[in-house]
Amino acid sequence: MTPFHPATSPRSLTKLAAAIAIAMVSTVATVSPVHAQSQAQDKYPSRPLTIIIPFGVGSATDIGARLVAGKLQPKFGHPVLVEARPGAGATIGPGVVARAKPDGYTILLGSTSALSTAPGMVKNLPYDPVRDFSGITIVGEQYFGLLTRAEFKGVPFTQFLERMRKEPDKYPVGGQSGSYQTLNNMMREAAKLTHTWVPYAEAGRMMNDLWGGRLGGVMVSLNLIFPHLKSGQGHVMALSATERSAALPDTPLMQDTLPGVYINSWTGYFAPAKTPRPIISTLHTLLTDVGRDPEMLKRNSEAGRALFLTPDETDAYVKKEVPRWTALLKAAGIEPE
Asked: Which of 79, 97, 102, 195 is most solvent-facing, going by the fewest CB within 10 Å?
């Protein structure tokens, strides 16, 4: 009779097969997330991209984002959508992106108001501008300027400041946000002025007051200055920037007369924190390629200047800007609300 071997019995073989299966499942379970992540990165991009903006439909940011989306889509190879998430001082949109899955398919078109000034203006901010985002690139800086009426064309900035100093009641200055108020306060302190600051909720009313002579000037962004220069109504006295504008090379800088008086805004793209670096790199390449399109370069030159910072430079830029703006807002008497 053939000897009986327990190891080769049907019951033992069944147990052995089950043990092997369990070991294989355990190994797959341990490896598959990493393998899946690697595969996802290798295939990126493989589906639509959504760009979240923190301002409403029809805003300048919305118009610019849709222009970028149209130029980015052929390079991305999939639909590029723009989703407006305005409200709460431009902090709702960033909050959405901060909580999004870090897979490279939801990114933020960020700005000064959404990241740099938010900690100094909004209580209980639902995100950390530094820790909750991975920078992709900052594509440009936007300059501010002191816009006056065309009747002051030919009057140097130094003489205009002297007129403001001697007759402050004739030269109140208006603006729409804390950034412009901060710039006004810096100019007022550096030039030893005593004029009144007039805040506005609506640009139309503000411009009507300027043209009607009720204001001596308004603090506005450079891209909003051009239409008034082209119409012949306005004249820009000086720009808040670190270098002269390519579009207005003869316009002086505020800091040429008042050292240290400058602030500006910026625009850039951000992904949720922990987005894989290869994906960040891909997005950086695609977005900077779009930014170098002649039409985009022209828009940037009319608003300020192009930058195209690297991801690491973008993170460092925001890290530096947040405390700087918080200090500026506090000095201007602006507290978080």
From this structure: 79
